[in-house]
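Bit of a strange request maybe. I'm writing a small parser for structure token strings and I need a real example to test against, not something I typed by hand. Could someone generate the tokens for this chain?
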Amino acid sequence: MGTIAQRFESGQQKANEGHFKNLVMLARVNGKVEESEKQLLARIAKRLALTQEQVNEILENPDNYPMIPPSSLEERIERFIQFVQMIVIDGEVDPKEHALIGVYAIALGFKEDQIAGYEEKIIQYLKEGKTRSEILDLYI
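Reply from user aminoacidic:
Good idea to test on real output. This should exercise your parser:
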């Protein structure tokens, strides 16, 4: 059912909430959310214009927020970059995170045989200190 506010949200807002939920699930996959992951989640929530109430609701009830992939290639790539940022931010990539990112990438419309290559390249760019915007510019 959801709250009354959830019933009147725009499609874009629901997509943002679904994306944030996926990031939360990536952060939680190893059983705990590291401080660095919390900080990244907070920055992304702000960028997605999510209120603290919405963030708390998603954290408490992530299953209520389905993934709604964006239609533009730029937004899909940006979301994939954010997924990769989330799995590397704590300094180690858990095999469960790696598997989950593959599922999310397919849902975003990426071809299965390209995902590992994109992920490796984005990890390399992040290690080089490139920002999300700089990496996005390389792909569009």
